Amino acid sequence: MNYLSFVKKYFTLSLLLGFSHLKADGIIGGSSGGSASAAIFMPMDTTSVTFLSQLPTGSISSVAINDFNQAIIGGTSSSAAYAQLVSSSKTLTPIGPLPPAPSFINSVAINGSGVGIIGGQNNSGFGYAARVSSSGA
User: Fold this and answer.
1) What is the DSSP code (8-state) at residue 111?
2) Is the previous residue joined to 97 through a cis bond, with omega within 30 degrees of 0?
3) Distances in Å between the alpha carbon of 67 and those of 24, 25, 70, 107, 111?
4) What whole-number distance in Å separates Cα of residue 89 and Cα of residue 110?
5) Where are the beta strands (DSSP E) in 55-115?
6) CA–CA distance, 24 with 112 (Å, rounded to integer)
7) Which ranges constitute the DSSP H helices of the chain?
8) Mean pLDDT highest for which of 20-24, 76-80, 127-131?
9) What is the pLDDT of residues 14-25, one digit of tens each?
């Protein structure tokens, strides 16, 4: 299923469940052809989908967005952890430093102030978590 189909199904489901009051963008992520892929959409306008560019080879495992349309994405770039902040204007800011390969990020969250948290596994096989400032550090 492509992203636009997914967005249309999400839109239909959100109307059925009564989420039509949502004003913030939505964000989805995954992989396509071995490359990370993510898209931002408006819940009330399924024809307006913006695919994020300059994503790495790998996969997006987790995404989150706040009420101010600031987002965070995380996953794996080849075999190393990968995470970026996404501004409300859809500008990407790398998060780092992150653990070297083999590592991954499998959970992200962002609050209303643009401060995030990421979690996954480091290169030693142990759990990894970090607070992310709104500047990506």
Assistant:
1) -
2) yes
3) 6, 8, 7, 19, 9
4) 16
5) 58-65, 71-77, 80-86, 92-94, 104-110
6) 12
7) 3-17
8) 127-131
9) 433 444 444 568
Q: What's at 26, amino acid-wise?
A: G
Please report, as a single letter, which amino acid is at residue 32. S
Q: Return the structure tokens found at 21.
A: 């009051």
- Residue 70 β-bridge partners: none
DSSP symbol at 34: T
- Pairwise CA distance, residues 67 & 74, whole Å: 19
Q: Are 37 and 27 in contact (CB under 8 A)?
A: no
pTM of the predicted model as reported, rounded to 2 decimal places: 0.80
Question: Within 10 A of 35 (CB to CB), how many other CB atoms are there?
Answer: 13
- List of residues 6+ apart from 62 with CB closer than 8 A: 29, 73, 74, 75, 105, 106, 107, 108
